[in-house]
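Any chance you could type out a protein's amino acid sequence plus the matching backbone structure tokens because I've never seen that pairing?

——
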Amino acid sequence: MYPKTVKEKNYDITVVKPRRVPLWAKKALLQFFKWTPALAVGFLIMFPLWWIFVSSITPPGELFSKPIKYWPENPTLESYRYLIENADLFKKVWDTLLIVGLSILIGMVVSVLAAFSFARFKSRGLSLAVAFLLGSMLIPDVVTARPLYDFLRQVGLYDTYTGLIILYISSIIPFSILILQNFLNDIPASIEEAALIDGCGFFQSLFYVTLPILKPAIATVCIVNFILCLNNFFTPLFYSNGISVLSTAITQLPLRDNMYAVPWDLVSAMGFIIILPIIIFVSIFQRQIMEGIMSGGVKG
């Protein structure tokens, strides 16, 4: 017997090609995933600042009104006028600029010279000095508060501009030396050796060759130190009594009604005044900050 033959059947197979997504839709989707997280993070950062500002220009009677108003019906600058007339605001601003400015200036001079020495000269003593500086950054301020308090009282530097400036300088020097030394390690020493061969002295090669290359790093460290000094709350609060800077001014606000009533409008106004210089400073020098970060992160 022969096997049965199977008739062949022809099947039409239709290939369905996937529909291509338009280019404009891809770009729109990419922009959505690009900007949505950025806008969300920006909102989380900026909303507290906005709320502090709105609270500072809101009359006291409208601060806790319901429903919550994100812009006052009767905005006023009475809180700022009250701070100027009764909280000695201009003196606090002057004390802050004087202490922070001199601290950054002196601290940067010392930090640049020390970082150059640590980067260019190698010895066991310098290595121990670097380790000591790095170790000092790990010690909390509260641990050394009592000994420093007694020492400043004994030498007559408690509650003085000189004492506060020394404390501010000592707080920014370790960080500044660490950052500047890393920048200097990326600068080849052959550049300075070539300048010495051409007839430059040691300090000429330092000021005319090395420092111009180090400008982005110096600018970055100055900006970071400015923010750190302006936000320093513990040092002026613990080591001074008559000298008041902006970071501690919020603890010395005059009470208008009684000692139990917190003047939230004045607290908000003073808080916004404390934050405003940092916002302006970073907005102006953000390019220098990025250049310093990029020049320190890229070798060659």
Summary: DSSP finds 13 helices and no strands in the chain. The first helix runs from residue 23 to 56.
